[in-house]
Structures are given as structure tokens and as C-alpha cells.
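Re: weekly structure request thread

Next one in the queue (334 aa):
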Amino acid sequence: MLITLPNPPRLISQKNNEAVFEIENLYPGYGTTIGNALRRILLSSLRGAAISMVKIKGVSHEFSTIPHVLEDVVEIMLNLKQVRLRLFGGQSQKLSIKVKGEREVKAGDIQCPSQVEIMNPDLHIATLTDKKAEFEMELEVEEGIGYQTAEQRRKEKLTTGTIALDAIFTPVRKVNYEIENMRVGERTDYNLIRLTLETDGTISPEEALRQAVQILVDQFKELLVGIEAKVSSKPKKVEEENIKTTSAIPLAEPVAEAEKSEEPEGDSSQNVSSLNLSPRTFNALSRANIYNINDLVSRTERDVKALRGLGEKGLKEIKKELGKLGLTLRLTEE
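Done, posted below.
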């Protein structure tokens, strides 16, 4: 039996920055494998931007208070960590705030260069409580992956009065997934993943999922390249020794043929996976929801040849395998 490929992710619903996707036709057990991998990548490995350092006028350390400002420095730092922004170009940028008078300071008061866009301008940062109040600070924004603590940043050489912040780079706020069983052909233990994904608005849920899948593909592709390179560079003498060693092991094909011969010839209720089809042909049938031989033989050659990803070669392959069972495709249109 071949391992089928899943259907592409399907958007079920979306509200603001939260979306629900479904991935169907996953081979039994693959729901947890793929769902867990996607969740870990989404939470830990996507790039984003965050405020990493701050320098407040008149403040020498994070446990200070500022005249005529309701919040202390620690509270202001916590608020700054929640500022979500886009950084274009990848280079770190300097931002600033300079306000006076009795008022509320919001993220929208941050003065940004053209390379930076504030996504939540209404976010509260501080409260000035007196008409004589002055509030000035410089901020540094940079791009990164996942989460970086202030402790890690304190190892760098910081100028006097500069305070390091915990930087939340990841643009993903929440990821949950559920696994359900679904029917594929005669089997009811295939998996369906229902993935709920929420971002901070700097990227869409669709883009976050695309990036996570691409990261996984790149990782496995590199593993495959490394394995293939190692196999191709193996000395010929070693390969010959391996052939001699493994040739004593009885092959599984005769057993499989024996098992196949026990099945009644011409049984059209069997699953398509019982046919000796190439992965390309099998997946083309799966995409068309053709899961058992009865479904297959009810179609004409023209119907089968028109299936996406099949073609003339796949048609010949199917006819050959059906012929072994004494079956054929339907000859005429009804």
C-alpha cells in the first residue's frame, strides 16, 4: 500500500488576524506528526521585528521613576514589548518619542523612518500627569526569529542609560490543532488536521502557514541532499560487499505475490492501493476521489486520461494492472 499525499490546506474561516485551516487525506498517524511540526515551527521560527533597546531621557536604569509620569520604567518597558511593527529592508532602525504636557502616550506617537510601520498605534505606552511633563526616549528596532531575552542582549556592549528589552520577534500569537479521523476509500483511520492560527497583524495567517511549510521543506530537502551525496560518494568496493551481504536475504516480492494470488480474481471492491501503481498514478486517482477498483472500472478511458497528473502513461499502467485481475475500464459513454 502506498502512502498517499495530503490535500492542500483549505481556509475554513477567518476573522481579523485569526484563521482556521483544514488539511485532509493525511495518511494514518501523520496528523500528529505534521500538526506538531507545523505548530512548533510557527511558534518558534518565523521572522519578525521588535523593539530591542530603549533609552529614556533622565533614566539610568530600569528601576527608575520619571517625574510626572504615572507608570514606572518597568511598566513602560512591558508596554513597549507589545508594540507590533513591520520592518522593511531587514536593517535595524532608530525610533523616537518626544511629547509634552498632560496626555496619554500611545504607540502612534512613535516617530518612525519610512522602513518601519507601527501596526497597533492605539497601544498605551505611558500617561503624563502634569502640563509641565516632558517625555523623551529613543528606541531601536531590529529583525529576529522567535524570542530573545534581555539577558542575552545585556551581553552586548550597551551605552550608558540604554536598557535591553525582551524581544518578541515571532509574528504568531497562537497556534492550536485538532486531529480527526476521516474516511478515504474503505479506510476510516486517515487523518484530518484542523489548524487554528492567529498572528499579530504584521503578516496574514496564510503567509505564516506558507512560511512554516517552506521552512520544513527546506530542512528535509537539505537532509535529502546530504544523504544522496553520501550514498553517491560511497566506494564501489563497499557497495559490492553490501550487495553480497544483502543478497542472502530473501526478497519480499514472492510473499507479496502469494498474498495477492489468494485474493479472488476480478474482485472490483478492492482498494486501488492493491494495484501495483506508481506513486504519481496513485496520487492522481486519490485527488479525483477514486479509492476503490469499482469506482475506477466505472469510468471510460477518456475519463481516466483526463485526470490531472495522469496522462497516457498512467492510463496504460492502469489498464495493465486491471488486466491482471481480468477487469477493464468501461468501454462506452452511458
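The chain has a mean pLDDT of 84. The radius of gyration is 30 Å.
Next request, please.
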